[in-house]
Amino acid sequence: DAGVIQSPRHEVTEMGQEVTLRCKPISGHDYLFWYRQTMMRGLELLIYFNNNVPIDDSGMPEDRFSAKMPNASFSTLKIQPSEPRDSAVYFCASSLRNTGELFFGEGSRLTVL
Amino acid sequence: AQKITQTQPGMFVQEKEAVTLDCTYDTSDPSYGLFWYKQPSSGEMIFLIYQGSYDQQNATEGRYSLNFQKARKSANLVISASQLGDSAMYFCAMREAMFSGGYNKLIFGAGTRLAVHP
């Protein structure tokens, strides 16, 4: 079975550019999470969805960040405009209702120059 | 206040020995879940073990066991017979139930870096 699929795996961009990260959750999972990992702040929850509906976006750092889940098999995290401090690894994860663990994608490593 | 505290930034262990990674948590929710994840240098997050707050017995998964002490709010990970491949970052995480408005989001600790020496 395919796991959580993220793209791109690596992205290098210049400050001010728009960045779009993509995620395909595991089929049948009804929760989707976006996390950001940095050395300074560790793993931070940015936003999560339940049945495609955003439930909690209190972790989104600022208005430059936005996330959407137009259907059960696809989500995007967009940063516009990007800044060097956005450089991090962005993880997408999905889970099935209240049961057990989150399944993580391999992450998207973003570098903003 | 920190929800999940991992006080050991780094740990060393000799191959084949057991090691305990500490985790304490803070919640007023009666229903919660505790998780441990492993992150090797390649970066992926690998689920290791889960303990529910109402589980009577400590969880075990192969060489991994969770020393759950509810009254002390601790959920330490024990790795028996360490292997070189166990060298990685280890994260403790908690998922609160809906009573506190957690809605199943997973909150992670800062992690402990484990190095296994031959």
Describe the protein:
The complex is a heterodimer of chains A (113) and B (118). Chain A is mainly beta and 113 residues long. Chain A has no helices and eleven strands. Chain A has strands at residues 5-7, 10-13, 19-24, 31-38, 42-50, 53-56, 65-71, 74-79, 88-96, 99-104, 108-112. In chain A, a hairpin with a 2-residue loop joins β9 and β10. The model of chain A has no long low-confidence stretch (mean pLDDT 93). Chain B has no helices and twelve strands. In chain B, a hairpin with a 6-residue loop joins β5 and β6 (46-52). The radius of gyration of chain B is 14 Å and the shape is globular. Chain B starts with a strand and ends with a strand. The mean pLDDT of chain B is 91. Classes of the chains: A mainly beta (113), B mainly beta (118). The interface between A and B is medium-sized, with 23 and 19 residues.
Helical content of chain B stands at: under 10%
User: In oligomeric terms, what are we looking at?
Assistant: heterodimer
Low-pLDDT residue spans of chain A: none
- Backbone CA Rg of chain A: 13 Å
Query: What structural class is derived from the secondary structure elements of chain B?
Result: mainly beta
Average per-residue pLDDT of chain B, rounded, comes to 91
Largest sheet data of chain B: 6 strands, mixed
Shape of chain A: globular
Mean of all residue-level pLDDT scores of chain A: 93
Q: What percentage of the residues of chain A does DSSP assign to strands (E)?
A: over 45%
Runs of chain B with pLDDT <50, length 5+? none
Q: Could you tell me the strand content of chain B as a percent range?
A: over 45%
Q: First CA to last CA of chain A: what distance?
A: 36 Å
Structural class of chain A: mainly beta
Q: What is the number of helices of chain A?
A: 0
One letter per element, helices H and strands E, the order of chain B comes to EEEEEEEEEEEE
Descriptive key words:
heterodimer; A: 113 residues; mainly beta; seven-stranded mixed β-sheet; four-stranded antiparallel β-sheet; globular; B: 118 residues; six-stranded mixed β-sheet
